[in-house]
Specification:
332 residues, alpha/beta, Rossmann fold, 2 domains, 7-stranded parallel sheet, 6-stranded mixed sheet
């Protein structure tokens, strides 16, 4: 059987081909799965997709009509898939339930340090041989307060790094993590976390209950010199409200690896096109904002684990097995 993999990055292609070797053939495409590209999957029983694929009812209907029976998503998040429609069409759906939490946690800290110490601005200046320090002053993190929203595996890894910096630890989650409690974390209501934290990092999944978790009210509650980092999902932050606060001169820094309207933009080269997203265009102009293109997970370790799990999901499907990664089971 040949697998069709959409949205494969150049670095991923040899890893995917090697992982499937000896099991199934695989055809890797750089284009993302969407309504326009879904017809390419006709005749492929198994399709693999990336997190920025659009799997709404139109795409799923096209896949099912073309003979696709299984979707293997190469990510933990699955908010881009209409699971109810998939189940109704008899499509099996699996994801990668976990991979290296350190990849995302370490990158979140990279963003935090970059905006706190003005690394991007400093680098751009030195390229022009401008070695002034004006506007580059940051702050020590030791003794300051970090707020971690979501203390699962990634949030815990982020917290351990914060503990190493000697920070005061505030957390918010539906359940307390014993490992974070041992590090000295105090769990509080999110309103208190927003008000007291000097650095806030988001590590919760995007669900209806968490969409715009950081809304206009939360942003106004935050300290004027706070740092906000989002390496989870773009929809957790009300970006329009964030731009409003940034225009008012608030926040020491904002580091975003995700954006709520990133589909159709991130992972693609848009440098020769006019970007019609006015919110994103405004966002990247602020000197205290760093935006990266959803790369927090993108390490050899994490990507290798994602691909290995994806291969195993396909093997489980062909063998009729069900694992914790299955979101919609194989129709009986």
């Amino acid at each position: 059987m040949e697998i069709l993999a959409f949205g494969v990055q150049a670095d991923e292609k040899p890893l995917i081909e090697k992982a499937f070797e000896g099991h199934h053939d695989v055809r890797c495409l750089g284009v993302f799965l969407s309504e326009d590209t879904a017809p390419i999957a006709a005749g492929y029983e198994v399709v693999s997709t990336s997190v920025n694929a659009v799997l709404d009812h139109r795409v799923l209907q096209t896949l099912a009509a073309g003979g696709t029976q299984m979707i293997a998503q190469r990510s933990t998040g699955f908010n881009n898939i209409d699971l109810e429609v998939a189940e109704r069409l008899g499509l099996t759906v699996a994801r990668v339930s976990s991979y290296s939490p350190y990849s995302v946690a370490e990158f979140a800290w990279t963003l935090a340090m970059a905006v706190n110490r003005r690394i991007v601005r400093a680098s751009n200046r030195t390229r022009d041989f401008d070695f002034r320090l004006d506007g580059l002053m940051g702050r020590d993190l030791r003794g300051r307060t970090v707020g971690v929203l979501g203390t699962g595996k990634i949030g815990e890894a982020f917290t351990r790094i914060a503990h190493g910096f000697g920070m005061n630890l505030l957390g918010w989650d539906v359940a307390e993590n014993p490992a974070c409690l041992e590090l000295g974390m105090t769990y509080v209501e999110k309103e208190r976390l927003f008000a007291e934290a000097d650095l806030i990092s988001l590590h919760v999944p995007l669900l209806p209950a968490t969409r715009h978790l950081v809304d206009a009210a939360a942003l106004k509650t935050m300290k004027d010199d706070a740092v906000l980092v989002n390496s989870s999902r773009g929809g957790l932050v009300d970006t329009d409200a964030l731009v409003t606060e940034l225009r008012a001169g608030r926040f020491a820094g904002v580091g975003l690896d995700v954006y709520e309207a990133e589909a159709g933009l991130f992972f693609l080269d848009k440098s020769l096109e006019v970007v019609e997203d006015d919110t994103l265009a405004r966002l990247v102009t602020f000197p205290n904002v760093v935006v990266t293109s959803h790369q927090a997970y993108y390490t050899e370790d994490a990507v290798g684990q994602i691909i290995d799990t994806t291969v195993q999901n396909v093997l489980d499907y062909t063998a009729g097995r069900r694992s914790e990664n299955v979101l919609v089971p194989r129709a009986s």
